[in-house]
Amino acid sequence: MELADAKDIIALAEQRSFSKAAGARNVTQPAFSRRIKALEEGLKVQLVNRAISPLGLTPAGLRLLSHAQTLVAMAEAISTDMQSMATNMPKALHIEMSNSLSSVFFPHWYKDMQRKVRGLTFRLSQQRSRISIDDLRTGRCDFVVHASTKNFRRNYDYSHIRQQIIGRDRLVMVKAPSLKNDKTSLITHRAGSYLNASIERALGPARMKTMKVVFESPNSEFSRGMALAGYGAALLPENLVADDLRDGYLIPALPDAKALPTEIMLLRADRPLSALAEALWEKSRID
User: Taking a C-beta distance cutoff of 8 angstroms, is the pair 237, 262 a contact?
Assistant: First the structure.
């Protein structure tokens, strides 16, 4: 199976529609359908149950999906690792985090840490948390930053990983003022993702049944853009939308939805680090 095949089957599993998956892969529907058919013929198994609507994967398709997700994650990790080698800052510590944390939390935190730790420099890579934890274990990065909803841990393997709190935030439900009277349109994330689970936790089962999903977003920054454009309510980090709320571009949505306190965590492997890295670890902890 080629990497493109893996991305095709992942898109089909997420979109549950040939036309939507084709759009996600930037090809025409006939071309995408031919690619999936060719994959089925090459593997000599039926991957897609076309008799149901929306369509779904067969048991063989689900098994292949698992392999495809592993393959794509590995390819992304290789790309990130190789990019990290091409640097003009070879002595800098390598840190990985999500898009939203890197754009909102990291700049101010980094400046604060540079005041506390002499000679501190970072190389930053944007990466999904699950992959970053593997990068910690294999030594491809020195630190990882991710946010976790308080009392609602991510379902990751944290063995041999040390964690400490370096910041706090909240996840809040917001929408555009034009949707003031709309109480059902919802921007979500990929099914099974931590962000989507957080939305379900904030709304609760009863409220979720009344909502209409209008868009599935790849990350919080994209959700913010879709919320600003007036597509629906989105659960977003308060620090990410503080200016939008202050200036009236976004307003609180669904008053009965719970705001979720979050803890911003610094992660490291449970092994000795460089003197600079150990100094950062000691100085970054907050009460």
Answer: yes
